[in-house]
Structure formats: structure tokens, C-alpha cells
Write a structure and sequence with these properties.
It is built from 11 helices and 8 strands. It has 296 residues and is an alpha/beta fold. The protein starts with a strand and ends with a helix.
Length: 296
């Protein structure tokens, strides 16, 4: 377990389980000393998290995870050391929430049309800000006895090959881009995300690229050209082979290497705070990031 975790989500994110206060308490119990709360497109939880981190003798780095797109690929960009009073973050969050609210009904219709059962009222009870995510649908569908003999659902039941993180895996398999339950959301461009983070005094870092960039060298090179200053090399999603690939690319392009579990709680039960693969020096990662933040 590491004492450094630079990527986690609170209940401010629509797929996060714990409040900022609860999350900081969990971080303390996990032995973390430096953390970054990086909610999806939101800084609303950072102030509360900072207060409780200080009470628990932890350092919290203000952060955000922005959804964006580049060359028809949806990406996540982390911003570290940002000024959370930047109003553009709030404007972007409101814009995305409005789209997600409008997309939720269509998402439910598409999943239902695939022959997957769920109770509508139960799903609505899980919604945040009127937004229904694929993870919420999964939680209700997995518990619905009408799906017990549904082969589509077998992988997400205990013992299934997608049961390690059943809710988010359901999202990737049914609701992600290119899947049958996908409803498009218009995100800012990668260039706009980098510009927004930098304008707020932050450092833009590409989140868990093994998920969506894979090991596409040309795509990665083009992403870096947009102004990315770091790569989340050490992620709970990355294999040892992917870690090695991104370590080499970070060195090749003189980029920061960061570490993050991407902890959410129940939507990703196999992801633990402070736990990632790879051999790394927390001290080096922390000092290099802080040096970059202070130089901005």
C-alpha cells in the first residue's frame, strides 16, 4: 500500500459512494498521507475534503477530472493544484449535468430494449441531480431476480468474469462509446480541458491511459502535443506491461509520472485506496508534482 493516492472520487461524482468527509476518514484509515480529490467535472467537494484532511493530518491537493474528447476518443484529464474558485469549472459541470439529465431516459430505454430487467423507481432512487448512470442501472439489474436466467447478466453475478467491478464493468460493456446503451454527451475538447486547467493554475495529467489510449503510440503522441504535462502511469487499471510502456513514454517526453487508485467505493469494489501495481517512489512522484505546481 502507498501513502500517496492522487486520484479518488467522492459522492459529488455521480458514481462515487462516500461524502468528502467520509472519504477523508477512509483515507486516514488506509494510512494515506497525501491525497487528491478529483471528482468528475466538479470541485464542489474539495473545500470540505481539505478541512477534514487537515483535521486528520493529511495533505490534500485540489484536483479535478475533466471529461473531454480527442480524435473521436473520450479521455479523462486530471488537473492538479487548481484554483477551485475558477467559475469555468462550475459552468462546465452544469453543462454536463444538463446533458446527462436529458440522456438518462434514453439510456434506460436502450438498456430495457436489450431485455435487461430493472425496477424504474429503484433506479431513480439512486439518481443524483436527476442523472441515471450505467452503474446505477447495473446495481438494480444485478439484484433483480428476473435477470437470474439472463445470459447477458451472468458475467456480473458473483463468480462471473466481470464480477470484480460489476457495476462499472456493466457500464463499459453496455453504456460506453460504441455500445448498445451509449447515449452521446458533448464534452469539451482535449485542448479546451488543458487550457482550462492551466488557466486555473493547474497541471494537466492524462488519467489511466491504459483504459482508452491503450498502447497506441501515435494517439498518445498527438495527445501529448495538446499540452499534457503528466501521465497517470501507476493506476489500479494498468497491467505491469502497461505501466512499463507508460513509464518509458513519460521519460521519453519528459512528463510527470503520477499515481492514483481511482477509488469510487461500491461501483469499483476491487479498487482500494492507495493500492496500485508497479515499483515506484512515492517521494519522487510527490516532490516532482509539487515542484511543478509551485512553479506555475
Amino acid at each position: 500500500m502507498s501513502w500517496l493516492d492522487l486520484h479518488m472520487h467522492s459522492s459529488i461524482s455521480n458514481d462515487g459512494e462516500f461524502t468528502p468527509q467520509q472519504l477523508m476518514q477512509l483515507c486516514s484509515k488506509a494510512g494515506l498521507e497525501v491525497v487528491a480529490l478529483a471528482d468528475h467535472n466538479s470541485v464542489r467537494g474539495v473545500k470540505e475534503a481539505t478541512i477534514y484532511a487537515k483535521k486528520l493530518d493529511m495533505k490534500l491537493i485540489p484536483a479535478i477530472e475533466l471529461d473531454c474528447s480527442f480524435q473521436n476518443v473520450d479521455l479523462h484529464v486530471l488537473g492538479y493544484g487548481i484554483d477551485i474558485s475558477c467559475l469555468e469549472f462550475d459552468k462546465n459541470e452544469s453543462y454536463i449535468i444538463e446533458q446527462e439529465q436529458n440522456a438518462s431516459k434514453k439510456r434506460l430505454e436502450l438498456i430495457e430494449g436489450m431485455g435487461i430487467y430493472f425496477d424504474y423507481d429503484t433506479v431513480m432512487g439512486l439518481s443524483k441531480d436527476g442523472v441515471i448512470t450505467g452503474e446505477m442501472i447495473a446495481e438494480v439489474a444485478i439484484a433483480d431476480r428476473r435477470n437470474l436466467n439472463n445470459p447477458q447478466m451472468y458475467p456480473y453475478f458473483p463468480g462471473g468474469n466481470r464480477s470484480d467491478n460489476p457495476y462499472v464493468n456493466f457500464y463499459w460493456d453496455f453504456c460506453a462509446k460504441g455500445k448498445g446503451g451509449y447515449v452521446p454527451i458533448r464534452y469539451m475538447s482535449l485542448a479546451q480541458a488543458v487550457k482550462l486547467i492551466c488557466s486555473a493554475g493547474g497541471i494537466p495529467v492524462l488519467a489511466h491511459p491504459g483504459n482508452n489510449v491503450k498502447e497506441n503510440k501515435e494517439l498518445l503522441q498527438n495527445i501529448i502535443r495538446e499540452g499534457i504535462e503528466g501521465i497517470e502511469v501507476y493506476s489500479s487499471y494498468h497491467s505491469i506491461e502497461q505501466i512499463k510502456f507508460y513509464e518509458e513514454k513519460a521519460d521519453e517526453y519528459n512528463l510527470l509520472k503520477t499515481i492514483g487508485s481511482d477509488f469510487h467505493g461500491k461501483t469499483k469494489p476491487s479498487v482500494q485506496l492507495g493500492k496500485v501495481l508497479g515499483a515506484f517512489s512515492e517521494e519522487d512522484i510527490y516532490l516532482q508534482l509539487m515542484s511543478k505546481i509551485k512553479s506555475m
